[in-house]
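Standup notes
- DV: blocked on the single-chain target, sequence here:
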Amino acid sequence: MSLAPLERRRLTVTGMDELGAYQVLRVADPDGPAPDPGQFSMLAAVERWGGGQDERPYLPRAFSVARWADGEAHYLLEDVGPGTHRLSELGAGDEIWVLGPLGKGFTGPADGRRAVLVGGGVGIAPLAIWQDALLARGLPHALLLGFRDGDRAVGANMLRCARVATDDGSLGHHGFVTDLLAAELDSEPHAAVYACGPPQMLEATRALCAERGVPAQLALESGMACGFGACYGCVVPIRGGGYVRVCVDGPVLDAALLDEVEAHAGAPA
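- DV (later): unblocked, structure below
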């Protein structure tokens, strides 16, 4: 597991790419540790962060590392609030605070199982770097992605050979990405599922895999203030009682640990 330095780093933005309804923030980090697929970073703009009439945004925001290549990290953004809006304004040459990589990432499939990657909305981000790792290891996999509409489905171009579902039927399968997952597991039950997306999708994935006895790893998202386990702001309950902290015990958790995926523990749709 890659461990971040115990302090945030002041880095330089190398670019911002448009990707349909999303943006890809690129950050130069030549001296930082290479992240494991599924790990995340806490991001905040150096300028105009914690300012304005209501002092928002104040806390840094957690983002999965979507790709890592040649000392450059990529993060997938959707402008949905004060933090993501400020980050979406950044351009080449601007500076950004980065704390990461943090948390625990994906582990490879065992027992000869075929990896099945399932993503929804901005939850596709950690699947991009995970697919890169699987391709580098020559491991076969299927990639299933779901989006609200065609504009967001452009995000599938960040990955390779995806089968796509859209809620409005504007691209690919008209329906949920879990419809594609059920069909995939019908044809290839000896699989291991890796999922990240909105909580409803993650819960449907967890339930489907539990019913079929298929191992699954879920990348959760929950409100984080620190990113290293001190604030207990991101706890989720686990099977049999007790809690885990998404930032240090996850964000990737074995689905068997959960009775359900709570409504706050997923990425935006």
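- Follow-up: The chain has a mean pLDDT of 94.
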